[in-house]
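The records we work with from here on pair a chain with its fold. Here is one such record, which you should read through line by line:
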Amino acid sequence: MDIKNVKIDVLGSVGGKLLLVDVTPSYAYVDGHRTGSVTGYKYTVVLEERMFDKLSVRIDGDKQIDKPIDGNSRIYVRFDNLELSLYWTNAGHQVAAKASAIHSVNENIKSQK
């Protein structure tokens, strides 16, 4: 069986509390070189239920949500059709993530200090 055909339990892997921390453009590549063409955005989330690991999720198309403006705002999100896949680099196995949409669960909740 090809590892690319394995289906990963997404909720079991990432948990239910996804905190948005960054939004960056995703670019097209031609012959292994990045072009100036933006094809979508990567939404980086902290997986609070998974020892605060981070995961970047690529969504093709226009930007759907902005990153938090300041360090005191928290935006929890959920993804539509989130898919995880594994790939290999010289640094070892990596996880790629893509989705069709992102939604705010409860925007701009101020942290309690």
Strands lie at 18-30, 33-47, 53-60, 73-80, 83-89, 92-98, 101-110. DSSP finds one helix and seven strands in the chain. The radius of gyration is 15 Å.
